[in-house]
Specification:
This protein is an all-alpha fold and about 625 residues long. Helix content is about 65%, strand content about 0%. It is built from 33 helices and no strands.
Length: about 625
């Protein structure tokens, strides 16, 4: 615990590059570090304790708290010579790198030592690999072309040196009560699953990937070796790392996607389930794995029957469900039979509901079943909100007006039981159906004066979508523009932009809101100004959009979408667009893979339109 507190305290006040952050770290960090550094010598003594668990716990303190670089380096050399356990040897080499990074006076001797260890054939492959990786961690800018091939070779030797073990079963947990939403139960199970590590070298390899950073071809080569391991735990950890790489860094990840997809056919069902889950989480780029996913779920249905979605074996069930969900998110109708089986049996139906909206081709079969599930949601219970919202979102995405009566019934029930979140979702669904939702017009109108922060703007949006009465909607929208709640202003601006030039009465207020202190408000209002006022508003709109994107890169999707609609008038944005496309890490809203892929596509298209003479910018490649 002391080592953990000290490590966190040292890291809290600094960015990754070592510079101080502008805001103050939590109180107590400085005092904690000072307290522990005063006792650095105690960690040196504890690192020599006769109990191996005490030694393992204390080693990290040598790199964090001992200010005598020579003493720390000497103790670490002594420990490595005496320790036989893999965990202690890995911790010792890691601590040496931490020492070099914290104390420049120790850097030269530690890095020379690590270089020697990595090249010493008398050392075991695990130690040599650790030394190579930690040397790279100390100086990532000095990683040469020979480092990754050397690491791959040592990793191969390490695999041969370590025993192959079956994946240890996860600890059992008490069953959840019926009053907990299944999505919540699953979220905690996922947290538990993702904190488990199965191979002794996983933390070391994570460090190597962090040191390699944007070197995607090299990282893919390392992951390819990890994924070829005969040890199922090592492959499971590698599948997760592959997902993390694809979700964090831009590039052509085709090779890595196919490597992960190859794990679907493994006999280790937990590895197979993890591979399917990674493909599902990376679905915006997972098209290269489409056929592998389809073959995977077809083979499972052939081997285990049409009810394999509800298979009693947990890993088999998870593997099939995640594969079906990944295929469904790709819009592939081969996922439909399993989704229908889930909805008909009510076995983990919520998992099917979450992806049903991606298959409008199957709306005729899905909508009645989704409506039946929605009918059975008991809105008198607060914990059912997540389930109702998910079904409403799926129905809205499918867009079949046959669902309107069920949505209207749900809206009435949500209002009656004061389920504001469900009320908002039902209003949004009715808005998606447009004039087909006219039967609910009176209820929608009554909710435009609701006190709930989210219900009121959702009701105004639904009122316009269903009734299309400008005279009725405009006073409500102008009122929302004056609201102190920022997302209400943004929602109103979006709807005004959708209405377009007929909403010109809002132009003065929208212009004034370009001076708002919240960049998201400025972005939404600037986009509305363009949609309503057109070319006369271009200078103010461009200034607001570009400043917001510089200030907060998370606004990029909204900004670029508006720039795209502006066409040639957006030419002053070209330098910023090129900068955006050159970034190696994913960006956009939430830095999610979906938003980032959409952002890259829009930026490339816009650059091509604004500068036809420029060569097209291909996506960064990893292979």
């Amino acid at each position: 615990m002391l080592v953990s507190i000290g490590r966190e305290s040292l890291e809290r006040g600094f960015e990754d590059d070592g510079t101080e952050i502008e805001y103050c770290p939590p109180s107590g960090c400085t005092q904690a570090v000072a307290f522990l550094c005063e006792r650095g010598g105690d960690f040196a003594e504890l690192a020599r304790d006769s109990d191996p668990d005490v030694r393992l716990a204390a080693i990290g303190g040598l790199g964090l708290f001992l200010d005598d670089a020579d003493l720390a380096a000497a103790v670490l050399r002594e420990l490595l010579a005496a320790e036989q356990g893999i965990a202690a040897r890995l911790r010792t080499v890691e601590t040496a790198a931490t020492l070099a990074l914290r104390l420049p006076a120790a850097s030269h001797q530690v890095m020379d030592w690590l270089t020697g260890l990595a090249a010493d054939p008398a050392q075991g492959p695990v130690t040599r690999l650790a030394a190579l990786v930690q040397r790279a961690r100390c100086a990532p800018d000095e990683i040469g072309e020979d480092v990754v091939p050397a690491a791959v070779g040592l990793l191969r030797e390490t695999v041969r040196a370590l025993p192959v073990r079956p994946i240890a079963p996860a600890p059992s947990h008490p069953a959840a009560t019926d009053r907990v939403a299944p999505q919540i139960v699953a979220a905690f199970a996922d947290l538990d699953r993702h904190t488990r590590v199965y191979a002794p070298t996983t933390a070391l390899l994570r460090t190597f990937h962090e040191a390699l950073g944007a070197r995607l071809p090299e990282r893919t080569a390392v992951l390819a070796e990890q994924l070829s391991s005969p040890d199922p735990g090592s492959r499971l950890d590698a599948v997760r790392m592959s997902g993390e790489l694809m979700r964090t860094w831009r590039g052509d990840h085709t090779r890595l996607l196919l490597l992960v997809a190859a794990q679907l056919t493994t006999a280790d069902e937990e590895v197979s389930a993890e591979a399917a889950a990674v493909l599902e989480s990376c679905h915006p780029i997972a098209a290269p794995a489409r056929e592998a996913l389809a073959a995977h779920i077809d083979a499972q249905r052939a081997a285990h029957g049409p009810d394999v979605w509800a298979a009693p074996k947990g890993h088999l069930r998870s593997s099939h469900q995640e594969g079906v969900r990944a295929l469904a998110r790709l819009g592939d109708t081969r996922a439909v039979p399993s989704l229908l089986a889930a909805l008909d049996s009510d076995a983990d139906a919520w998992r099917a509901i979450q992806v049903a909206g991606h298959l409008p081709q199957a709306a005729e079969e899905l909508v009645p079943r989704l409506g039946d599930h929605l009918r059975r949601v008991d809105l008198s219970q607060q914990w059912t909100e997540m389930s109702a919202n998910a079904i409403l979102a799926a129905l809205a995405a499918l867009g079949d007006p046959a669902a309107v009566p069920r949505v209207v019934d749900t809206l009435d029930a949500a209002v009656r039981h004061e389920q504001h979140g469900v009320t908002q979702s039902a209003l949004q669904a009715l808005g998606a159906f447009g004039p087909a939702g006219v039967v609910a017009l009176d209820t929608i109108r009554s909710l435009t004066t609701a006190t709930d922060a989210h219900v009121r703007p959702a009701a105004v949006a639904a009122l316009w979508a269903v009734g299309e009465d400008l005279a009725e909607v405009m006073p409500l929208l102008l009122g929302l523009l004056d609201d102190p709640i920022t997302f209400r202003i943004s929602d109103a601006a979006d709807l005004l932009g959708e209405i377009g030039p007929p909403a010109s009465v809002a132009l003065p207020r929208l212009r004034g809101l370009l001076a708002h202190d919240y960049e998201w408000v400025r972005v939404h209002c600037a986009a509305a100004l363009w949609e309503i006022g057109g070319e006369s508003e271009v200078p103010a709109v461009l200034e607001a959009l570009l400043q917001a994107m510089i200030q907060n890169p998370a606004t990029a999707n909204h900004v670029v979408a508006c720039l795209d609609r502006m066409g040639p008038l957006a030419a002053p944005a070209l330098p910023l667009l090129r900068e955006q496309l050159a970034l190696p890490r994913r960006g956009g809203r939430f830095q999610s893979i979906g938003h980032d892929e959409e952002l890259q596509r829009m930026v490339r298209t816009l650059i091509a339109r604004l500068d036809p003479s420029a060569p097209s910018a291909p996506a960064p490649r990893t292979t």
